[in-house]
Amino acid sequence: MDCFAAFLLEAQLLGERLGKARFAAEIREIAGFVQHLIVCEAAGRASGEFRLLGWSGDEVRRLSHEAARSAGPGQPPRSCSAEMGELAVSLNRLRALCRKAESAAVTAFVDAAGQEPRPDLILALDRLSSLLYVLMFRHGDSPRPPPG
Fold it and tell me: Of 85, 69, 59, 67, which Cα lies nearest the Cα of 144?
């Protein structure tokens, strides 16, 4: 989680450097939420209900599924490409780091009997990775078709 939080700060600075105020503000809000999760984990407190960028966890899930399906029927889910630009590539890295943090949380919080003492944190990280996926397409340049 600490590494993920550090890369969020780098992404915020990238947005500020590129003059992308909306992007920087969204990353700032996400970074604040990640700090909240870190404090909740350390203190043993539940993270509680949350909204990120105005969306509930369920709305984020729905939006990410819509983004994945927008490639068309029978097509694999959309993915990032370098042609989408620095912001999209940065968001893709953040999404991958968030998924890594989620996997680590599952390993850390699921006991031998399969019980999850911290389902709130695991769900929050799952929804956060979905949000980063949605933002990747919101802030990415449209991929250009290959030459030729």
Answer: 85
